[in-house]
Amino acid sequence: MLKDNEKNFSRLHMIIDAIVLVLSYFLAWLIRFVGPMAATAVRTRSFQQYMLMLVFIVPVYLLLYQAFTLYTPMRMQGRRLVLANIVKANSLGLLILMFTFYMIDESDFSRSTYIMFYVINIVLQWCARMLIFALLRDMREKGLNQKQMICVGYSRAAEEYIDRVLANPQWGYVIRGILDDNVPAGTEYKGIKVLGRIANLNIILPENRLDEIAITLGLSEYYRLEEIVALCEKSGVHTKFIPDYNKIIPTKPYTEDILGLPVINIRYVPLNNTFNALVKRAMDIAGSIVGIIVTSPLMLLMCAIIKLTSPGPLIYKQERVGLHNQTFRMYKFRSMEVQPELEEKKAWTVKNDPRVTPIGKFMRHTSIDELPQLFNILKGNMSLVGPRPERPFFVEKFREEIPRYMVKHQVRPGLTGWAQVNGYRGDTSIRKRIEYDLYYIENWSIGLDIKIIFLTFFKGFINKNAY
């Protein structure tokens, strides 16, 4: 019954989308030819001819919405993901329209009308979906439109799944209980009871009107997975598998198909893709050249001040660990008194450190001392954005103490990074810094790099933890 309801809801959703498409299109035409922009409009096509285009636009856009998963159940879809898919579908729709006009050499339809349609439709489709989200949330919190389910296996995965379901009643899931062979019947976790052994599936499945089964076996019981999946699928009940290895395999694992054999990579690194790496390198070269030109007056001024206030070299070169664990010399403006390399290489700077010069304290606090790293970026040792590089001594120390620490060396180190713009610089938690670095490595995109560079100007230069 619930499956039928969801199919009917998807159809209703498509009807709503079709209405919104027509409304958006009409509003765009109205603004262009009747409203505030009418004075500059040249009507070479009639209203009827414009409206006739909807015969092509509506089915194409509905197919695009289907392709971008906008008709999948809205129980657990993130709102930002929905918005992103709406923008992608509409962007592709606009490109198809413009390409079609170009191919048929049609220049009489107003391009500005279709651009307005693009903007209006995104806004209205988003508003319509947010209204649907709100209505469904209220229904499910009142006990309507819910899915009945059980968990097979008591494990960390089961507990984490129950935690999320209970914390999000708007998803509309009701967990009836847990089946497990190693935990006594009657054991509870947050009000969800262990009902009995896994073999009881033979009794429960025919008697209960379950909508879903979540297989939440512990790692030690995976040898039973094939047997349990076969049993669940024989009943026709939708079955999903919630793995107990989420601490090992990332949320979005990178899978390969080797002649029909699925292979899951432990870590997905988008920058291992040659095209992605070339795009990022091109951005680094262009960005470093622009950065050097723009900051050259400031760097010359710092050189003069350093020379006048403290004896020693202008540029301080320090060994750091970079891409593929290779060491390189990282450049910084010298902000401390000259000291033996053996003494400084094993010690972090502390608050009110007497080794820091007066101008050095200012440069560290404002991150001006990092500007020479633009030359490291131009050379290819570093990137504009990436995990900050560390000294070899600390790398050897942290690789033993912090799980997954060495993963950061699968990409080039950066002048700034996701951890830095989120406040993890200087004397802050190394573990949290690595968490943010891993997120960046696994979720890299050009957009994320641009976002980090933008945030650096507002949050990344001034560092209260730089001593």
UniProtKB/TrEMBL annotation:
Protein name per the record: UDP-glucose:undecaprenyl-phosphate glucose-1-phosphate transferase
UniProt keyword annotations, A-Z: Membrane, Transferase, Transmembrane, Transmembrane helix
Membrane-spanning segments: 12-31, 51-71, 83-103, 115-136, 285-308
NCBIfam families attached to this UniProt entry: EPS_sugtrans (TIGR03025), WcaJ_sugtrans (TIGR03023)
Membrane topology label: Multi-pass membrane protein
Cited InterPro entries: Bact_transf (IPR003362), EPS_sugar_tfrase (IPR017475), Undecaprenyl-P_gluc_Ptfrase (IPR017473)
Chief localisation class: membrane
Organism: Blautia wexlerae
Domain of life the protein comes from: Bacteria
Residue ranges occupied by any Bacterial sugar transferase domain in the UniProt entry: 280-459
Pfam families linked to this entry: Bac_transf, CoA_binding_3
Compartmental location: Membrane
GO molecular function per UniProt: undecaprenyl-phosphate glucose phosphotransferase activity
GO cellular component, as recorded: membrane
Coiled-coil features, chain-numbered ranges: none
Catalytic activity, EC: 2.7.8.31
Family that this chain belongs to: Belongs to the bacterial sugar transferase family.
